[in-house]
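User: Run a structure prediction on this.
Assistant: Running it now.
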Amino acid sequence: MNIMGRFRGIRHIGARAEFPEALHIPGDAPKGLYEDTKFRNGLRMPRQKGLTFDAWHYQNQAFTDMSRSVPEAILILDHFGTPIGVDPYANQKKEIVSQLI
């Protein structure tokens, strides 16, 4: 029997709003989280244990850069890119999407 049971991964809320007053769920992750070397190095651990890393965050070039710096990590994106196209981001859809590709 697998000692992990139904446990398959780690979910983390990495959302941090630049304009929290404009959002229903602003998120309060530490500033610079995805740029942090210790955090990036820590993403290697779940894969070594056969686990995934599930992230909820706003559109974010830092997340894209982080994912490229740890290619061995299995990343599951939950609500990826929230909140594309709302309030202060309403006229930035094209720029936001181009950063994520």
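The longest strand covers residues 52-58.
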